[in-house]
Write a structure and sequence with these properties.
heterodimer; A: alpha/beta; FAD/NAD(P)-binding domain; Enolase-like, domain 1; 3 domains; 5-stranded parallel sheet; globular; B: alpha+beta; 5-stranded mixed sheet; 5 strands; about 15% helix
């Protein structure tokens, strides 16, 4: 792409912000327009449910780059602005402030939005999501000693909020529709382990609980109603039941979509001038021979590297092994890979020691690993997943044999 | 405040004034210096902010935690003076620090 080409990035989250910065690192010199819905420049979202909520990190430390970075690097950052339509033939995007920008390359990094529960009372004050810094600020006001917090959804966000809520002195109840926690994303061993840990820290659980509505007083939530007729009293609710990709603008413009905007290994969509990265992208993952959509920081960074490399004319980064992490209490959970086509689950170490790893195997290949306080299992597991190298299950299951020896 | 010299694997040097309290990793990332990826943002979860600390500075940058040690053990091109730069807190004592980057963070 020529030096004068104009790159427009729709979405100023972790993916969009990183793509802008990487284009400059990679020597791209053309103008960049970065369009963000939120009033502040790109920041890290993971600490919102953890360090930031607990007051251990401030807004400056969350920012990917200081505000002045954008102007200094000829990146036109448009805050509080969204794209309203995309004209692929004219290569222009109409923005919510009434302006129009033309592009030579467009990166769609519009992310995903929290799924709302279509139930009565969802509009009451105090019923919250945790997606943005503004959401987190509302939540921080609502939790504290003596406050009762109800968390709808026992996924990672719900559990991280529960842990932070306890750290801040709130009473926390987690309401989960499935009969176990983390049902969509983790194995039973991990579900059981996390439930015990949270209970030890004073969190209560209602599993198999069908939430039917929220009740309130003077417009503010006071309780969650369940299908069995009970009402759980609370002062605030966080709903964490998944996210939906913001792919409407791509769909309306006729780009190919599946569970998100379909892209290739360059992060390029069905239109060669348009890329899609981060939570909104439905992307190929060659080590699993399939395409899927992921919601994680490493995924956002990978897409940003792919799109920036393609635009700046650099070779693509080596194929990655997807991974993610979660911190709850003094536990560090690190996950590599996804448990596709798994025929055996193997636990290495003892969950009772809070230091163990769960390996998901397809034959003698590692498909994914969930490691609790076990960096060697995570790091070596990640390498084994990427290398597609067979392992001895017997040795893998024996924690007295080091991971280096297992992989040797 | 500490003046820190970040040396890319290709030899390019970047001299940056980093505020006390930030990590050596944050000093690099906030200034868009290539070569320190820091995928996890400082959670000690990824080992993509690996640097080599010049010998003269090793004692001043403190001890590695068990977690850092364990992560580094499985990173690539690890040397005795390898550190995760997210785990080194900047203070006046580090004024003049020189860190060098590995060929790759993955």
């Amino acid at each position: 792409m020529s030096a004068a080409a104009h790159v427009v990035i729709l979405g100023a989250g972790h993916a969009g912000g990183t793509a802008a910065a990487l284009l400059r690192q990679y020597g791209f010199e053309g103008p960049i327009t970065l369009v963000g819905e939120e009033p502040i420049p790109p920041y890290q979202r993971p600490p919102l449910s953890k360090a930031w909520l607990k007051g251990e990190a401030d807004a400056d430390s969350l920012a990917l780059k200081p505000l002045e970075f954008y102007a200094e690097h000829n990146i036109d950052f448009r805050a509080s602005t969204t794209a309203t339509s995309l004209d692929r033939a004219a290569k222009t995007v109409a923005l919510s402030d009434g302006s129009q920008v033309s592009y030579d390359a467009l990166i769609i990094a519009t992310g995903a939005r929290a799924i709302a529960l279509p139930i009565p009372g969802a509009e009451l004050a105090g019923v919250m999501f945790l997606r943005t810094a503004a959401d987190a600020a509302h939540l921080k006001e609502a939790v504290g000693p003596g406050k009762r917090l109800a968390v709808v959804g026992g996924g990672y966000i719900g559990l991280e909020v529960a842990a932070s809520g306890r750290a801040l002195g709130a009473e926390v109840v987690v309401l989960e529709r499935e009969t176990r926690l983390l049902a969509r994303v983790a194995c039973e061993t991990l579900s059981t382990f996390f439930k015990q840990v949270h209970e030890q820290h004073g969190v209560t659980f209602e599993l198999g609980a069908s939430v039917t509505g929220f009740v309130g007083k003077d417009g503010r939530v006071t309780g969650v109603t369940l299908a069995d007729g009970r009402t759980i009293a609370c002062d605030a609710v966080v709903v964490g039941v998944g996210a939906h990709p913001n792919d409407e603008i791509a769909k309306a413009a006729g780009l190919e979509t599946a569970r998100g905007v379909v892209v290739d290994l360059d992060a390029r969509t069905s239109d060669p001038a348009i890329y899609a990265i981060g939570d909104v992208a439905h992307r190929p993952m060659p080590i699993y021979g399939r395409m899927f959509r992921m919601e994680s920081v490493p995924n956002a960074l990978e897409g940003a590297k792919q799109a920036a490399s393609a635009i700046a004319g650099r070779p693509q980064p080596a194929g990655e092994v997807p991974w993610q992490w979660s911190d709850q209490y003094d536990l560090k959970l690190q996950i590599a890979g996804y448990a596709f086509d798994v025929d055996e689950i193997l636990v290495r170490g003892d969950p009772a020691s809070a230091k163990f790893a769960v390996f998901h195997l397809k034959g003698d290949l590692v498909q994914s690993v969930e490691a609790i306080n076990s960096p060697p299992e995570f790091m070596m597991g990640k390498q084994l997943i990427g290398a597609r190298r067979p392992v001895s299950k017997q040795r893998l299951a024996d924690p007295t044999i080091s991971m280096k020896e297992v992989a040797a | 405040m500490a003046k820190i010299t970040y040396v890319e694997h290709n030899g390019s040097e970047h001299v940056i004034d980093v505020k006390n309290g930030l990590s050596v990793m944050e000093g690099a990332v906030k200034n868009n210096i290539p070569g320190i990826d820091a995928d996890c943002g400082g959670a000690c979860a990824c080992a993509t902010c690996h640097v080599y600390v010049d010998a003269a500075w090793q004692s001043k940058t403190g001890e590695k935690s068990a977690m850092e040690e364990s992560m580094l053990d499985f990173a690539e091109n690890v040397e005795d003076n390898s550190r995760l730069s997210c785990q080194i807190k900047v203070s006046d004592d580090l004024d003049g620090l020189i860190v060098r980057m590995p060929e790759s963070q993955h």
